[in-house]
Specification:
alpha+beta
Length: 127
Amino acid sequence: MQDSHLYEYAVIRVVPRVEREEFLNIGIILFCKRAKFIKVLYHINDAKIQALSVDFDVEQLHCNLTSLEKIAIGAKDGGPIGQMEIPERFRWLTAIRSSAIQTSRPHPGLCQDLDKTVQRLFEEMVL
């Protein structure tokens, strides 16, 4: 029998017009300290975002999410935050912001398979 993994996840949201506080779920960040696991999955539906704000810069959103992904995986071009330990990267990625990209509060869970769990959460919360 596999060990259970205690994990945390947060939903990535895009808020095209911050003053209106409307958002779309566009991704998931899942983190497990013991397994040294962190993964970001996202999907951008340009049409839905444009329906909330025709002036929203979707190209910039793509660039910003690519940067978040680089930070999460600790890529060399992820900047100084990408070089932090995994727990610190997760905390930075899920810090409260009032910008166009926000995350939910982190939620805990237990699972046997982290890859399957992040995929299931992505399908349930985003797709």
